[in-house]
Amino acid sequence: MAGEHVLNTAGAAKQGSDTIFSWWARYQDAKAAGRDAVNGTIGALLEDDGNLAINKVVDAAVRAAPEVEIAAYAPLAGLPSFLDLSKTLAFGDARVELEELGFHLAATASPGGSGALYLAANNLLERGQSALLRDRHWGPYKGFLENNGIDIVTWPLLPPNGHDEHPYFANDEFESRLQDLCRKQDKVMVWLNDPAHNPTGLSMGEQGRAACLSTFVTSALNNEEVGHTLLIDSAYSLYADDPHAWADTILAAIESGMPWPENLLICVAISLSKSHTIYGLRTGALVSIHPDKEVTDRLDTVMSVTGRQTWSAAPRVAQYCVSEMHSTEKGGEEWAEERDRLKQLLDDRRTNLISECEKLDVPINPTMDGFFAWIEADDPVSIAESCSEMDVYLVPLKGGVRIGLCALSLKDIPKVAEALANAMR
Fold first, then answer.
1. Which CATH architecture does the domain made up of 9-51+341-424 adopt?
2. Where are the chain's structural domains?
C-alpha cells in the first residue's frame, strides 16, 4: 500500500472520499455539462436560485468587525461574551430558570459543531468503549468517534412496531442498548441529533424527548458507578418549530420532581454554521449543564485544555460579531426575522415534497424540521443512481437516501418525487 512505510496503523486505515461531497461533485459535473441537473446533495441552505442563502444581518455584522477582532487570537476557552451567548443558544429562555434552580453551565468555543463533538469524544468516554447513536445518523460521527478510539452501538430511529405515545422514539430498544452498555462500561454517552435530525428531518416530539430523558435518568440512578452523558447535537435546531425543545423538556422534568444524579451530564453541541449561515467561519461551542459547580468548572478546564492541544483557539471573528449582534434587542430581532425567512424556504420545500411523494406513492419517512428528508432503502446506491439518470442528485447513505431540501429549489420538487417514484419501482 502506498505510504505504508510512513503511515501509522490508524492513518493507513483511512480511505475513500466523503459520500456527500462525491455526489455533490457528480451534480456539479452534470451542471457543467449543460444538463438540467437538480441538486439535493449538499448540506448547506441555498436560495431558490441556487445561490448560498446568507443571513444578511449576520453578514453585515461580520463585515463591520474591527480589524483587531479579525486578526487577534480568541482566549483559549472562547470570548466570554460568546460563551455567555452559547449558553442561551443552547437553552433559550429556559436558561434563566435552570440557573435560578441551582444548575450551572459550562461552555467552550470550538471550530464549528464538529469541534464540539470532538471535545465530547475526546473526554467523555474511554478508548475501547462504545457510544450509543440512532442507526440513522450523520456519517462523520463515525470518524470523530473512531479517531478517539471509540466504537458505535445503535438503536433504531423509529419504534419497529410503532408506539402510540411517542411514535418517533424507540424507547424499548434505547433502554435495552443502554442497559447492555452499563453492564460493560464505567461510562456511557449518547449522541442525539434532535430536533431537525440529519439525515431525515425527524423531530422526536415532546413525548419522545420526555421518554428518552426519563429512561436515561433512570439508568443513571440505577447505575451509580457509571457516568452518563447525553449529548444533544443542535446543529439544525434553530430551524425547528420548537428550537429549544430539549431545554424545555429538561426544565419541565426538573420542575416535576426529576432527580439529577451526580453521574448525569447533559451537553449541547452548538453550531453557528447553519443557524447564522457562516459555515466557513467555523464557530461553535460545547455547552454542559450539571447541578454541581465544581463539575462544570472542571469541564471548563478540561475542554479548554483539549482545544489548546488540538486546534489552539477557535476562530475569534464570528464569536465577537455574533455575540455583539445578539447583545441588543434590535440585533437579535433582525437576525430572527432573517432566520424565519430562511426557515420558511425549508418549510415550503418540505410541504411540497411530502405532497408530491404522496401523489406518487413514494414512501418518504416522517420529516418535520431542518434541512433534510429521507427514503429508507435496502440498496440506497441503486436508488441514487436511478435518480441520477434523470439528473436528480441525492445522497445514498447507510439504510437510505438523504434528500437535501436545503439545496433544492421549489420548482424542482416535482422532478425529485418523480425520480424517486421511478427509482422505487
1. Alpha-Beta Complex (3.90)
2. 9-51+341-424, 73-315
At 3, the pLDDT band (50, 70, 90 cuts) reads confident
Inter-residue long-range contacts of 297-301, CB under 8 Å, 24+ positions, other chains counted: 297/106, 299/106, 299/108, 299/265, 300/77, 300/106, 300/107, 300/108
- Helix then strand then coil, in percent of the chain rounded to 5, is 50, 15, 35
What confidence score (pLDDT) does residue 10 get?
A: 81
- How confident is the model over 376-411, as pLDDT tens digits? 999 999 999 999 999 999 999 999 999 999 999 999
pLDDT at 16 over 80: no
- If phi > 0 it is left, if psi is from -120 to 50 it is alpha, else beta; for residue 401 that is beta
**Dihedral of the CA atoms 153, 131, 257, 100 (nearest 10)?**
-150
Percent of the chain, pLDDT > 90? Answer: 95
- Residue 144: name the closest of 160, 121, 110, 116 by CA: 121
| CA-based nearest residue to 77, from 322, 324, 279, 299 | 299
Query: Residue 192: what are its φ and ψ, rounded to 5°?
Result: -135, 110
- CA 218/CA 320 separation, integer angstroms: 40
CATH of 73-315, one of 3.40.190.10, 3.40.50.200, 3.40.640.10, 2.40.10.480: 3.40.640.10
CA–CA dist 21, 397 (Å, integer): 12
DSSP string, 29-43: HHHHTT---EE---S
C-alpha cell at 48: 431558490
Element (H, E) at 330: helix 329-359
Task: Find the radius of gyration of the CA atoms of the chain.
Answer: 21
For 251-293, what is each residue's pLDDT tens digit? 999 999 999 999 999 999 999 999 999 999 999 999 999 999 9
pLDDT tens sequence across 206-250 = 999 999 999 999 999 999 999 999 999 999 999 999 999 999 999
DSSP 120-182: HHHHSS-TT-EEEEESS--THHHHHHHTTT-EEEEE-SS-TT--SS-TT--HHHHHHHHHHHH
What rounded mean pLDDT belongs to the chain?
96
Q: What is the pTM of this model?
A: 0.96
